[in-house]
Amino acid sequence: MCALAILLSEPPAHLATFSVAVTMSKPIDWNLCIICQEISSAELRCPTKCALDRPPVDIYNVFLENVEKFKELDALPVNVDYGEQGTALAFVENNASWHKQCHQKFNNSKLESVKQRLQKRKRSSEEGNFTSARRSKRKPSEVHRLCIFCSNLTSEELH
User: Fold this and answer.
1) How many CB atoms lie within 10 A of CB 23?
2) Which region, left, alpha or beta, applies to residue 88 given φ > 0 means left and ψ of -120 to 50 means alpha?
3) What is the model's pTM?
4) 94 lies in which domain range?
5) Residue 138 domain-assigned (yes or no)
6) Does some domain include residue 86?
7) What does the pLDDT look like over 42-91, one tens digit per residue?
8) Which region among 92-96, 111-115, 141-145 has the lowest average model confidence (pLDDT)?
């Protein structure tokens, strides 16, 4: 079981970082996707090497915040474990990269989908505690009896 703590550092406002500190299972290979840590033919994307409308530290902060939120919901799409290296500043310094497909697993819309799904489950389980079991809508079929004396088929009592 991983120990989890949220650390907010206090560098200058433009470098404020969010970090996730968890016990490390193995060191990060910064040359691989920081999410799946696998060699793949898929292109690696690095916020520090792209011309973006936001500073890379902000992009890494959003990612790390979402990782934390998924953990709180016990719904991590991929088991990530960054240990003390799990800070936006460490990601910037090491030019952390990811596959587009891996990064999308942690985006805001996926997080909202998980939250909605969990709320629906919670509501349905709460409603289930107050409703009785459903009864079959099927009506019992009419029973026909065959008289062994006159060979008539009837739904009434036999003679």
Assistant:
1) 11
2) alpha
3) 0.63
4) 4-117
5) no
6) yes
7) 999 999 998 788 999 999 999 999 999 999 999 999 999 888 889 999 99
8) 141-145
**What pLDDT is attached to residue 81?**
84
Quick check: 67 and 81 in contact, CB under 8 A? no
Count structural domains, the chain.
1
Cα separation, 48 vs 59, in Å, equals 9
Per DSSP, the three-state class of 85 is helix
148 belongs to a structural domain: no
Buried b (16+ CB within 10 A) or exposed e, 119-147: eeeeeeeeeeeeeeeeeeeeeeeeeeeee
Under a CB-based contact definition with an 8 Å cutoff, are residues 28 and 97 in contact?
Answer: no
In a domain, 16, yes or no: yes
Which of 89, 63, 62 lies closest to 77, judged by CA? 63
